[in-house]
Each structure stands twice: as C-alpha cells, then as structure tokens.
C-alpha cells in the first residue's frame, strides 16, 4: 500500500482510497467517507511536530486546517476547499490577523505549546529561543544566524554582509513603540494563505513563534498579496498600527529575505542588500 494511504487511514481512522500528489512532499488523499485530507512528508526531524503545534496554536485565533495527527515523518490535516481571493475575504483576513496577534505569546521567540525549540521556516532551521527585548532578540535570533550561514555557504560576500550588519545596528532606534509579543504565523507569504470556498482566508505551513506583529504584515507584503490594502485596512480596523509602521517594513523583511538567501542563494542577495540599505 502507498505509505500516504496508510498514514491517512491511521490518523483519521477511515480507510483511504486515492492519492493525488501536489508536490514532492504533499498529496491530497481521498478517504472512503468522501472527505479529502492533506498528507505531508516531513522535511526534517521535528518538522511535523513543529508544524502541528503551530497550526493548533494559530487555530486559537483564526482559521487553519484541523490537524488529524503527525509522527516523525508525516503530518495529516484537513484540506481547505479552494475559493478565490476577494476584497471582502482580504478585509476579513486582516481582521483575523489582528485577532491572532492579540492572542499573544509568552515572549519573543517563544515556541507554540508542544512545539520544539529547534523548529523550521520552510526548509531552514529556526531556533526558538525566548527574549524580552524585541530588537536585540530579532537581530540575534532572526537575522544574524541566516547572515552567518549565507556567508559560510558563499551566497554573500563580506561587503554585502556588512550592509546587513549596519542595518542591524540601526534597528534598536527604529523599532517603534514597545509592544507585547504577538502570536505570529512566522512565514506569512501569500503562498501560505489559502482563499477558501467558504469566503474566508485560511493559514497553512506556519513557522509559528512569538514576535512583533509588524513582521507578519511585512512578509505578507514582500512577495505580493491579492487586495493587500484591504488586508491592511481590515487589520487597522481592529488593531491600528503604531505611527511610522510603513517606514519599518524593510527592517521586518530582513528576516525572511535572509532565509531566502540561505535557501535559494544569490538571486535574493541584491534584494536583501537593497532593503538593508533602506533601513533607517
């Protein structure tokens, strides 16, 4: 039997009949009762546990797929029936994100309950080490580890790295008003937003942790999002952002951009250097 069928049956308690691969690691599996679930093969040890914990934590604040079960190799969740992005759904996404962030976290860098300290953002390792000062934590735990890795693997040279380091040196004075740790999705690019057939937005594939709420919003802007201004309007209707937040977007994008440099190499170096030069 196909391993994905066996895993889906084990975690749902229902015989599985069909498999439709969506990628090298993700497949839709049809169950005997007519439901469809998503079966995902874990990319690394602890990845399925981290994702399951993140989904359950985020589910306290907004729509995410139900987690049926996981082990060291597999994660099984509900499938979100696809719909389309509308201005109304985007506005609702913004309002829901504001509510999610307000659910809070024990500290910057706090892992979800049951989630591992050694987690992931995409295929990159991400260490959840708590801190109480956002700028210091963000620099040390969310930017510099990936900058060091990028230099070590030859994706960035010393001059390019120095530009990012100078930007980090300016972050403490650019962070804006002190805010409590927010409950972040952590990898909130448009591909991790599903526009459901129910007219609502759903979140998948989190790298959930405690952080600054502007980081989620900055990442949503990084690679484009349908009806982005409606998302932001919905957010601010619930939880207005601190003055100057648009000038801080680049600072919050350093983290995901450095992750992309580590994972995908040189094509993101020029972008991260340009953003770093604009910080401050």
Automatic annotation (TrEMBL):
Record's keyword terms, sorted: Kinase, Transferase
GO molecular function, one term: kinase activity
Superkingdom of source: Bacteria
Parts forming coiled coils: none
InterPro entries found in the cross-reference section: Fructo-/Ketosamine-3-kinase, Kinase-like_dom_sf
Family: Belongs to the fructosamine kinase family.
Full protein name: Fructosamine kinase family protein
Lineage start: Bacteria, Bacillati, Actinomycetota, Actinomycetes, Kitasatosporales
């Amino acid at each position: 039997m196909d391993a994905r069928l066996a895993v889906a049956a084990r975690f749902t308690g229902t015989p599985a009949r069909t498999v439709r691969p969506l990628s090298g690691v993700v497949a839709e599996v049809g169950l005997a009762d007519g439901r469809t679930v998503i079966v995902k093969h874990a990319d690394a040890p602890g990845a399925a546990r981290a994702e399951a914990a993140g989904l359950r934590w985020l589910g306290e604040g907004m729509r995410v797929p139900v987690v049926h079960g996981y082990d060291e190799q597999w994660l099984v969740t509900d499938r979100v029936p696809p719909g389309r992005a509308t201005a109304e759904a985007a506005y609702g996404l913004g309002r829901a994100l504001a509510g999610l962030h307000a659910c809070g976290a024990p500290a910057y860098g706090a892992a979800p309950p049951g989630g591992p300290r050694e987690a992931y953002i995409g295929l990159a390792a991400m260490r959840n080490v708590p801190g109480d000062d956002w700028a210091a934590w963000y620099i040390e735990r969310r930017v510099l580890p990936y900058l060091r890795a990028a230099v070590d693997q030859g994706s960035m040279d010393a001059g390019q790295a120095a530009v990012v380091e100078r930007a980090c040196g300016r972050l403490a004075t650019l962070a804006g008003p002190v805010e409590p740790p927010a409950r972040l999705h952590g990898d909130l690019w448009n591909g991790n937003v599903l526009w459901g057939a129910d007219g609502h937005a759903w979140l998948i594939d989190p790298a959930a942790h405690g952080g600054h709420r502007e980081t989620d919003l900055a990442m949503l802007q990084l690679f484009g999002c349908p009806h982005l201004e409606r998302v932001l309007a919905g957010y601010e209707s619930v939880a207005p952002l601190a003055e100057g937040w648009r000038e801080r977007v680049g600072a919050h994008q350093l983290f995901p951009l450095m992750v992309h440099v580590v994972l995908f190499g040189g094509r993101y170096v020029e972008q991260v250097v340009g953003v770093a030069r604009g910080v401050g």
